[in-house]
Every structure is written in structure tokens, then in C-alpha cells.
Amino acid sequence: MDNRRKVILDVDTGSDDAVAIMAAVCAPELEVLGICSVAGNLPIDNTTENTLRVVQMLGADVPVYRGASGPLVAQLNPLRQDMAPRKKPVFVESRGRMVRVHNEYLDLPAATIKTQDLPAAMFIVDTVRKSKEKVTLLPVGPLTNIALALKLDPTIVNNIDEIIIMGGGHAVFNTTSAAEFNIWFDPEAAEIVLQSGANITLLPLDATHAASLSLDDAKALRGLGTKTGTFAAELLEHRIEVFSAMKQALRDDIAPVHDALVVCAAIDPSVLTDVRFMRVDVDCGGGYADGQTLCDTRALPTKPRNCHVALDADPQKFASMLLKYFSKS
Amino acid sequence: MSDKIKVILDCDTGSDDAVAICTALLSPEKLDVLGICTVNGNRPVPNTTENTLRVKDLLGSDVPVIRGCYCPMVKSLDPRREVLETAHSAKGEDGKEITYHAEYLDCLPPSHSKPLPMHAVTWLIDTLMNSEEKITVVPVGPLTNIAMALRLEPRIAEHIEQFVIMGGGHLERNSTAAAEFNIWVDPEAAQIVFESGVKIVLMPLDATHRAYLTPEDSKYFRSLGTKLGDFIAQEIDDRVEAYNLLQPLHIPDIAPMHDALCVAYLLDPSVITDIRHVRVDVDFSGGLCDGETVVDTRLIPPVKPKNCYLCMNTDSDKFASMLRDILSRAKN
């Protein structure tokens, strides 16, 4: 019997998403049932094309589904995100030019493979309903597709093994002083997922920054001499340059590769080193705290606990897992 | 010119407010308390005013007490913004109400002194605008009076040396998962104060949960044989019981004296062991994080200028020994 863990990836590719896709497809412990794209880091046309480029480069037989083109409701009020207080700029100057974390297109050949017909949320509903084994969802972008699927058919929760989310922050934030990008981009979707009753593990910035990779790791990845290793090294070096220019990491020679940590946690949860069961809700108020993952740290929370929150992670284990997966091709 | 610090207190008395007032009034060598304004908060303003007068009478002080605002600036216009709060009280085993702040400070006799016949906001503006020296303002309740004064007469900002505020929480909260009580009661008022441009030293729960007295201190105060000693001992005992039942903290059997930390800081800033210059804004959107003090901890260059000295830790032993020392000065 195939004892690989059945997973669906949901991505807004995205530089760290690309590393996550490569790891999920290459890891022998996972069976990737499909990859859904969503708007987030970049518009949906870009995240879908970038996802196809990565799958094509891998030569993998994994279907790609185009997902939601924007958040459920957060952009209906034009002031809510455009004018968001304390929002950090997307571009920053480095070595005499303007750079950003996620370039519009990944530096890979244009995709000739195509997406499937089915919209991503419907693929999720269909696949989870029909699967004989429970399915694990790995959303590493805004949670729009997952929320749509859970609203279309709330009973899929019964056949979901776990939802491992890259998103949010407890004491570490990026897009605003209160919020991490994925959750901030679609707060209502995130709250729908957190209230769904599913078994949820959240990897906020606290964990993904703790597992930051370094220029030395990039060198090791390049040293593998494989396509995946070389591409992961390029992406990591770019991230380190941008994070350093933005003064967003604790050191100039490291950067988090957020999304790939979700894939590694799905294979070996011990890559996460401080996981606490807490009540987490998302602020959807549209004010200073919009999109905050509010972790109730009080001794007596007012609502039942609903989420395993990772606050720390092991960068050595993370790096060695990626090196293993990228060593073959 | 005197080298005493000129101080205005703004309180919602309140058990820990009472301890703060006593600590300030019993430190005349360092503090010149010009007046105590009262505000709606722990209890409605008639109660917080009466309680403040009771404490003043206990100490035989002639400090002016001035009654302030009855309700938040705008928050109570929307009744939905109140529903997320955690319980304030519970019934103990014998059916008695266990709470942080009794309706009245029962162990003190009803007051015989009176508040000044004017509003606290008017008095604040008059006092600040007519003072030649800058004045330190110490709000330890909701910031309604202060924000109202800033809106009525923005020039008072130039007459304020600094605000030393008890309120908010960075990683520790109480009234909701996101918010501390004082800020949660009147979030808009708090944001007005944070945008005032005046220097702000903020004592959030992260610091005040480490500014506590214990049953040992209670025994000490009771042994003094003074009315004040008995009063402080009773407040410690009641707060220990309330915290153990309603809001267990990192150490059992402690009575945080949040508001008194502001006064202790003025007397000896070294009571605070971790202070950070940051940007703080208050969420007032009415959502889950309503009333949260949002601290910008990001490493990126600040999008808005830093506006607050955030106190994150306290020397608990120093705090307790300061209070033991100061509060045992009362003859009565």
C-alpha cells in the first residue's frame, strides 16, 4: 500500500512557494494530488504561470488548478488595503536598482503545460470528498481557495487530516505592524478556516524566521549540481539580498523561506520546535490590527483552543531536509 | 524653582489606583501632586470619585480632587463593542462577589471632603495652560479626560513634560485576548494621546504583571498597626483572591499593583528594567482587536515616527520594597 501522505498544495508562487513546490514534488514521503494557485504575492495570472513553470521544470505529472483572483471581501473597500496603516513598501533599493521579494515571473522557461479546467476550490472539494484516505492541505498563500472550499462543502473537514498553514505572526510581523502578508491579504478567509473545526497547524513568521536559511545553505544547495538545487540556491540568494536591503531579517546573510517549512513540517513535524495549542482568531476589523492572527495567551481563554501554533523551528534540520530532496534531479 | 516633579494623577479608583495615590501623596520630597482627576473605568465616575476622596481623607491630604468624564468619547455609541470582554467578577464559595475593584472601597469610611466644583477637563486645561513649569501627567485609567482636554485645547501638549500611562499590553492582555482594560474602555481616546506628540512612557501589562505585592507584604502592612497599613493589606488580599480565581498569572498568589508602577517609575526610573522606544497605535476598529496597543516591532525602518517608551519588565523586588518603605510613612 502507498503510505505516502496525500497533500494538496495551495500557492501564490512566489519565490519561497517555488521552493515549497519543488520540495513537495521531490520528497518521497508525499503524494501531491494537485497544486492550486491563488492571488497573493502577485496577481493570479502570475502566480498560476509561475506555478506551471516550476511543475514543467520538474517534469512532474501533477495537475495545476487556477484559483481565486483576489480575497473574499477585503478589497471591496478600496481604502482597507491601499491605505492600510503601517504598511511596508513592496520595493526597496539594493545595489543601485529597485528589487522586490517576488519578481513578476520566475526565471524559468515560459510554461507550455496548462492548468486543468476545474477551479481550484472545486478541485479541493471534489478531491477531499472522493479520497479514500484523509487529505492534508498545505496552504502557503492567502487562504481564499481553502475558505471557498470549506464554504461550498463544510463536511470536507471530516476527510481532512490536517491543514498546515504558512501565515500570521505572534510577535513577528511583516506587512503591517500587526499582520503577516498571507493573512492580511484575506483576513476573512483565514478566520473561516480557523473556525472550520479542522485540525490546524499554523506556521507564523515567528517559526519561519527562526528557520531562516543562510548564504552557506545556498552554497550547499548549489553544490548539489542538480536543477532543483541550483534554482533553490538562486531563489535563496535573491531573498537574502532583498531581506537585507529591507532590514527585515536579524542578520544580513539569512532569509526565511517561509513556505517550504510547511512542506517539511508535513513530512517531519519535529522540524518545528515550540508548538503550542492555542485559541487563534483573525482580526477583520479593518483598522490598525486588520489581519492579525490574535493568539489568546491568557491562562483562561474565552473560546476553545483551535490551532497548533509553531513559535520556533530548527534551521539545521530544515536545511538538511531540503538538501536531501534536491539531491536527485 | 523647586526640583520636585509637578504631577497630575488621573484615576478610576479602583484598588490599585488607591495604592498609586497613596504612594504619590506619601512622597512629598519628590512629587508635588497638583490634583487628582477621576474618570469612568473600573467603576462609574461617581464611585471612582467617592473612592478617590476616601483615599485622600484617609491620608488627611488637601490635594484637589476633580470629577471627570462619565463615559468613553465614542465607543459606547456602538453596544457591540462591549460584548467581547472577559468577566470582571465571580461568586466565591460562600456566595460573596470576588472582583478586582469593589463598588466602593468598603474598608474606608465614606468621604467628608468634596470634589472641586468644576469638570476635570476644564481643570486640566486651566492648570496646564497657567503653569510656568511643565507638568507630568500620570493617567492610570481610561484616557478619556486627557483626550478630551487635548481636543479642546491642543496647546496643553506644550505644557506637559511627559505622560506616564498605565495601559495596554504587548504580549500580555486581560480584558480581551487582544486588549488591556484601560485602553479597551476608550480606544479612540488612547489613539488621540498616542498622536499628541507628547513624550509617552507606557506601563503595559508586560511590566505591571511584574509590579506586585504578595501575602507576605500584606502581613507586613497589617503589622504596622496603621489605618493605611490595614487598608493596603486588605487590597492585597482581595486582589490575590481575584487574580487567582479570574486571571491566573505566571506566579500564583500575587497582587499586581499596575497603577502604582507609574508612580514608582517617577520616583526611581530604575524600577523598570527593559524600556524600548517604539511606535504604538491603538486599534479602534471595533473588531476582535478593538483596544489593542499595536506595537511596531518590525526591523524595517519605521513607517511612522516612534512615539512611545514601552516598559517591558520590572524589578519586582525593588517595586515591593519601595512600596513597603513609602506606605509605612503614614502616621495614621
Features:
heterodimer, A: 329 residues, nine-stranded mixed beta sheet, two-stranded antiparallel ribbon, 12 helices, 37% helix, globular, B: 332 residues, alpha/beta
Describe this structure as you would to a colleague:
- The complex is a heterodimer of chains A (329) and B (332).
- In chain A, 37% of the residues lie in helices and 18% in strands.
- With 329 residues, chain A is an alpha/beta fold.
- In chain A, the strands form 3 sheets. Chain A has a 9-stranded mixed beta sheet, with helices on both faces. In chain A, strands 4-5 form a two-stranded antiparallel ribbon.
- In chain A, helix 1 packs parallel to helix 2, helix 1 runs antiparallel to helix 10 and helix 9 runs antiparallel to helix 10.
- The relative contact order of chain A is 0.16.
- With 332 residues, chain B is of the alpha/beta class.
- In chain B, 34% of the residues lie in helices and 20% in strands.
- A 9-stranded mixed beta sheet of chain B has the order 3-2-1-6-7-8-13-11-12, with helices on both faces.
- In chain B, strand 2, helix 2 and strand 3 form a beta-alpha-beta unit.
- The longest helix of chain B is centred in the C-terminal third of the chain and has 20 residues.
- Chain B is globular and about 55 Å long.
